[in-house]
Amino acid sequence: MVVLNKIYTKTGDHGETALGNGCRVAKHSMRVTAYGTVDEVNATAGLARLHAEGETDAALARIQNDLFDLGADLCRPDMENDDKAEFTPLRMVDSQVARLESEIDTMNKVLEPLRSFILPGGSALSAHLHLCRTVSRRAERLTVELATMEHVNPAAVKYLNRLSDWFFVAARMANDSGRDDVLWTPGANR
Fold first, then answer.
1. Taking a C-beta distance cutoff of 8 angstroms, is the pair 45, 63 a contact?
2. Domain Cobalamin adenosyltransferase-like: where (predicted)?
3. Which of 11, 75, 89, 187 shows its CA 20 to 30 Å from the CA of 173?
């Protein structure tokens, strides 16, 4: 259980923050940038939930929880020493990726095949889900970049890759199962 008695600690006043293993790093480090962007994805998912109902809202709630798991995973860099840690670090697992894939497949069954690229928009929920998609793609790019410098849990990268796909398909569902998608017309304004 997490207990936050005091919100400000002043320990970051000089541009550093603590990782999950206690190491202090610059707030602009690649690892902090990666998990900070995952937090942005979570915030955009919260905005999308303002427009979601039923199963879409429940799925977004699961995703928000997963995103905290992902942030916990990314803020703890020392995977090779996980077995020596005081407590078992939280890591993303393949079953979280598989759940996203299953949900994507279920949603995709009712969608017509795409014949054009889609412009973000349509319904309010769809527009917010497209924002989630683009921020999750940025989080993925940053996490992949981090993985070129330090060890990153492969399931974390896979999760981010599937997540942006999930947001894309869910955005189409939010546009009356794709019938209200806003299609790109190449060269329309020349």
1. yes
2. 7-174
3. 187
Average pLDDT by stretches of 10, the chain with 190 residues: 67 71 78 95 98 98 98 86 72 97 97 91 97 98 97 97 98 95 94
| DSSP β-bridge partners for residue 25 | 17
Rounded CA separation 78/81 (Å) = 6
Contacts for 102 with CB less than 8 Å, ≥ 6 apart: none
Read off the pTM.
0.90
Distance between CA atoms of residues 57 and 61, nearest Å: 6
CATH class of domain segment(s) 27-177: mainly alpha
